Amino acid sequence: MDLRSNEPFWLQKNGIVNSYPTLKESSECDVLIVGGGITGSLLAHQMVKDGYSTVLIDKREVVHGSSSVTTSLIQYEVDVPLYKLSRQIGKKAALASYSACANAIETLEGLCKAIHSKAGFRKKKSLYFAADNKAISGLKQEFEAREKAGFKVKWLDSSTIEKRFSLRETCGGILSSEAASVDAYLLAHELLIYNTKRGLRVFDRTELQSVKYFKNHVVASCTRDIKIKARRIIYCIGYEAKDLIKEPFVSLKSTYAMASEIDREHLKPLSTTVFWNTADPYLYFRTTTDGRLIIGGADEEFSDPQKRDSKLDQKEAELKSQLSKLWPEYKFYTDFVWAGTFGETVDGLPYIGAHKEFPHSYFVLGFGGNGITFSVAGMEMASYFMKNKDHELSPYFKFGR
Ligand SMILES: Cc1cc2nc3c(=O)[nH]c(=O)nc-3n(C[C@H](O)[C@H](O)[C@H](O)COP(=O)(O)OP(=O)(O)OC[C@H]3O[C@@H](n4cnc5c(N)ncnc54)[C@H](O)[C@@H]3O)c2cc1C
Question: Which domains does the chain have, with CATH numbers?
Fold first, then answer.
């Protein structure tokens, strides 16, 4: 599957950060990580930290899948609001999922500090605003649910939002204290570089093609029929997991994003907050450390990559029009426009755990609008799985839930 259009912003901005060899001879390890996006890089970090000999392979260049197009808003807010998720999966499960994402923001901050990351991790606030009057009552219920659950939230009315952020006609919204943004493309590379110095072996242009299962290990056959013997496999293959796992568990969408020219002066009021609204599909935006505005949204059902990419001009106009209704004084001059495919689940939650058809293996699939925070939560979960320990989130993130 072609996961994205050409020339996403992060690839252009960062260029070639590092290169890795293809796998040329058989190898052995404790853990084989399949997929070198942000998820695989985070999981590799965890496995190396836990002392496992670890190999990571990717069939593309590393970080050339979805993690090269992500807009990287880091939020605890799951796509399904807390009050609705509580009805859907129960209060305890919904709260645990939201709390795990909030903790993931802290974990990611600590991680960025520990590896001296230059990927621009910034703690921010998050404004979840009503797209129209009809959304207000639901949003108020959400505000109450979050406040009751102990999240640091404030209700802002539309005039406060206008005064503070210059955004008009928002009908009010929830301001949360916990959010962030980062350059996930650079961060994934940094994690791989950091951990190769600590024994991680990374091979790109190396595809996992088949796996043979034995009592206590697996043998993975890769490109050119080169084998890797491993005690465990951790699949971090993103949306292409849809091709591997038979039952339907995720629906794919085409999504669009664009980055403005650098304009620090006008974007200053927006620079410490990330924004999203209640529309379906929702509009979201945030600034970058180099002074651009990134906007995303205009999602639709994914059918094929050509169709997705043919709509770039139309979607650019759509996103600009949505922004100009909110902020008529701001003129968005486009520097980059790109498209990607992304996966949604019914409850907005990821799939992290074992699958009965894949012995000695775990999946970490961070779906939904906050795929990255879910992948961070997956680090601790995988660490538990490796020690045969149960994790409290497993029942909520498991296959067949
Ligand atoms: C436009 C867009 C905006 C988004 N915005 C946000 C956001 O604001 N916040 C957020 O949290 N999330 C966001 N997401 C989601 C987020 O980008 C994803 O959750 C995240 O990038 C997934 O990372 P990953 O490493 O799991 O997948 P990927 O980055 O796709 O990496 C998977 C890797 O697996 C490799 N692979 C697959 N099969 C094999 C195989 N058989 N053998 C070897 N390698 C294999 C692929 O080549 C790929 O490199 C967005 C997504 C898109 C598309």
Answer: 18-69+185-248+348-397 (3.50.50.60), 123-180+249-344 (3.30.9.10)
